[in-house]
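A reminder from the course coordinator: this example appears on the midterm review sheet, so study it carefully.

Given structure:
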């Protein structure tokens, strides 16, 4: 959403915009979103406006303004609470897009199956999963779920950020559904049978930066973006920003292992070239072949 609040409201083609004028706190709306992470009101210079708000009526934006928002059945507290829980669990900042994990819409699930829907919490689930791994278990985290690694205490951060720690804006970096080349450490058991420079399915996937104590904590780099032009198919805006980032990592925890795959190595069961990474993880006890695979 760009332009000043007044400009955006005035230029809206939605007739419902007239219901709430800019800055009018007297009118009512179904939902008023104020100072929320997931909505930013900015001026023409793309600077965030303190106190900016967006009102929604009948599912459509009905007003944008600054100051006191219109009266509304304000559900934003519940939405923010849900977002905060995900951040605590999986560190959503590893995902440059806002759709980090989340819970399924239970209304779309038949009533008889809703009791089987689980809930991952930082208080119960994360400690249990960590205990599982340390006792010899194996966890394969793909895409945004690699945030579980940080929740378990692994030294990983989001590589794709500005100097101030904020994720890159979409105008600077955006890579949806494209194939990118990575440099893979084929000496790792998990990479047995893999090409040292495979193409991976990348859909605004998380890219990691390991902390200086990564090796001491058992974290090993498996794949990196070692070029400023990794694109092999599709399109990529700001692909040069990937250079130096970690695409995949392996973490030894106790007697178990956790693998962190940023790219979608199983995307819609289509990327056969990266299946081995997943299958090797499942078959973690195999012996490496004594002769190179043909």
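Designed residues:
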């Amino acid at each position: 959403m760009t332009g000043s609040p007044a400009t955006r409201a005035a230029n809206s083609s939605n007739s419902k915009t007239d219901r709430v004028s800019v800055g009018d706190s007297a009118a009512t709306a179904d939902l008023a979103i104020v100072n929320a992470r997931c909505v930013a009101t900015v001026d023409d210079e793309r600077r965030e406006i303190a106190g900016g708000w967006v009102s929604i009526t009948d599912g459509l934006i009905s007003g944008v303004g600054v100051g006191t928002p219109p009266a509304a059945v304000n559900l934003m507290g519940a939405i923010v609470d849900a977002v905060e829980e995900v951040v605590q669990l999986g560190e959503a900042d590893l995902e440059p897009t806002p759709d980090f994990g989340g819970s399924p819409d239970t209304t779309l699930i038949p009533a008889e199956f809703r009791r089987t829907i689980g809930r991952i919490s930082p208080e119960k689930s994360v400690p249990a999963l960590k205990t599982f791994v340390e006792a010899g278990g194996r966890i394969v985290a793909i895409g945004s779920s690699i945030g579980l690694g940080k929740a378990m205490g692994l030294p990983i951060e989001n590589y794709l950020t500005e100097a101030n720690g904020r994720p890159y804006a979409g105008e600077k970096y955006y890579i949806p559904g494209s194939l990118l080349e990575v440099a893979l450490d084929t000496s790792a058991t998990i990479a047995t049978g893999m090409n040292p420079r495979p193409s991976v399915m990348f859909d605004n996937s998380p890219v990691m930066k390991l902390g200086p104590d990564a090796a001491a904590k058992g974290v090993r780099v498996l794949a990196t973006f070692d070029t400023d032009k990794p694109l092999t198919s599709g399109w990529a805006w700001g692909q040069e920003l990937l250079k130096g980032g970690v695409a995949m990592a392996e973490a030894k925890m106790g007697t178990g292992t956790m693998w962190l795959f940023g790219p979608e190595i199983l995307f819609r069961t289509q990327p056969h070239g990266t299946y081995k990474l997943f299958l090797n993880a499942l078959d973690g006890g195999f012996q490496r072949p004594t002769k190179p695979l043909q």
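The first helix runs from residue 5 to 11. The chain is about 15% helix and 20% strand.
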